[in-house]
Amino acid sequence: MQIPAVILVGGEGTRLRPLTARTPKPMLPLVDRPLLAFTFEHLRRHGVVRATLSCGYLPTQIREHFGDDADGLALEYCAEDEPLGTGGAIGFAARGIIGSFFALNGDSLRGADLGRLVEFHRDRGAKATILLTPVADPTRYGLVRLRPDGRVASFLEKPRPEEIDTDLINAGVYVLEPEVLEHVPPARAVSIEREVFPRLVEEESLYGLALPGYWLDIGTPESYLAAHRDILERNFPTEVGERLGRDYTYVDPSAEVSADAHLVPPVYVGAGAVIEAGVRVGSLAVIGSGAHVGAGSVVEHAVVQARARVGRDCSITRSFVGEDAELGDGTIVRGLSVIGPGARVGAGNRIDGGLRIAADAVVPPEALSFP
Ligand code: GDD
Ligand code: MG
User: Fold this and answer.
1) Cα 53 to Cα 59: distance, rounded to the nearest angstrom
2) Is there an atom of ligand 1 within 6 Å of 91 CB?
3) I need a surface site. Which of 185, 187, 250, 359 has the fewest CB within 10 A?
4) Is the pLDDT of residue 13 over 90?
5) Per residue in 293-335, pLDDT tens?
6) What phi, psi does 316 have (nearest 5°)?
7) 177 C-alpha vs ligand 1 centroid, how far in Å?
8) pLDDT above 90 as % of the chain
């Protein structure tokens, strides 16, 4: 399918701070690679060979990591000086594209068949077609009400609970004709969801199609943790999930795992990680490359990112320890809490209730506790 793609990767990832303090959301690690790599994999699988990345926040890291080719997907970069909003950014990045193109939010995981979306779009003679997916709580998304023929009757971004009368939402993947960009005024921020889609609804040229397949928006620590779980459990099929094999355990050959440590599947231990004696890692744990877990600690349903150092007898559950962070002995981190990258948390702290420790913060020993 020779349809080019524009991928939006310019957001600040506010709800994932402090993990996004120095890493843009699309570059956050997801098991063994940046989140954005899964979007590339999905596009390639459906025959896309060219993508433009619409960058804003911390663009250099994305470019330095992927360069101009991601395993056969040719990449171009386009950086805004000021955030242009989702519509403005698509307009800016799609200048010069002649035929139909895909536009995608770069912060979700998805498995839907893009070929079927294009087929439906062409069949209906649509100007724009939105991939839809059902979710339990549409309030965080764009609610899409459909007519029986697949035309969108209304599009409501972040609906109020009383407005919800369908579970179908915008999955952040569109097939667009270049004419859509006529609705994007230049030189100011424009939201495709709040400004462009409602105009297309009036014109009756906007369509939506729900397709089967995995879908998850990664916007909060909770959904970021769910993404790790779904890869480890192979609910979302990936190459790294396959590598976990039948026993759902992957230990990189360069990792050092004590014979006296206990790995409970599913579990992933990255390159050069060190797991000391008496440690329990898993279930549902990811230890990033070069991370160190001290003797007697427990890491369960949690992520210890690259090069972080967890002291002895720590307990980390349903939480994140950011890259290069250090936890003193006996620290407890739980309840969807996040230790920012580079933070130094002294011994004996107890961190719970979604607490977030800023990047590079220094927390003295026994400073934080919970009842
Ligand atoms: N280049 C650029 N410039 N990218 C941007 C900008 C911008 O000004 N603003 C947002 N983005 C990117 C983000 O990086 C993200 O990949 C995508 O656009 C969507 O922005 P989010 O801030 O993550 O929006 P959301 O998750 O609240 O809602 C959007 O996604 C939902 C599905 O995940 C909307 O499109 C909803 O309608 C949709 O349901
Ligand atoms: Mg999002």
Assistant:
1) 9
2) no
3) 187
4) no
5) 999 999 999 999 999 999 999 999 999 999 999 999 999 999 9
6) -125, 115
7) 20
8) 93
**Of the listed 45, 122, 147, 158, which one is catalytic?**
158
Tell me which amino acid residue 364 is.
P
Taking domain 244-363, whether its CATH number is 2.160.10.10 is answered by yes
Pairing assessment for the beta strands 168-176 and 128-134 based on DSSP bridges: antiparallel
SS (H, E, C) 290-351: CCEECCCCEEECEEECCCCEECCCCEEECCEECCCCEECCCCEECCCCEECCCCEECCCCEE
Cα 65 versus chain centre, distance? 16
Q: Ligand 1 pocket, 144 CB below 6 A?
A: no
- Written out in words, the top-level CATH class of the domain with range 5-217 is alpha beta
**Bridging pattern class, strands 292-293 and 302-304:** unpaired
CA distance 17 to 14: 5
Q: Give dist(CA 25, CA 30) in Å, integer.
A: 11
pLDDT digits (tens, 9 = 90+) for 175-208: 999 999 999 998 899 999 999 999 999 999 999 9
Containing 6, the helix (H) or strand (E) segment is strand 5-9
